[in-house]
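Morning - zinc ion inputs below, output right after.
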Amino acid sequence: MLALPAQMVEAMIAHARQVYPDEACGLIGGAGAEGRMIWPIHNVADDPTVRFRMAPDEQVRAFAAFEGRGWELIAIYHSHPAGPPRPSDTDIAEAQYPAAFHIIISLADLVHPSVTVWTIRDGRARPVLWQVKPD
Ligand SMILES: [Zn+2]
């Protein structure tokens, strides 16, 4: 089960709202199945309202920051500004880092965003239980 600090969940939702109606994206570093650091990344997709592509130079900096602390990439997050809280066919087809969790923040209900966690392996997305860890 993935554990994410409450502050990190709030930061992902805040990022998703900040770039709305574009998709937000970023990386989460940590140890085991516990998130320790969130690294928001600019979405450089041609049409960022319907897909995401992380800025490569920022990805490199995120990995360096994680490694510098003895952590690794444990999750990738992105938002669905209007779509459901599950991976799209494109998300599944283009998923990188099969060992990482995939977090989706759906703003389909702007007042009550939903956060879901998935594994995407071998062309299949499966939901994962996760919990908020008190700060
Ligand atoms: Zn998506």
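Note: The CA atoms of residues 62 and 68 lie 10 Å apart.

O.
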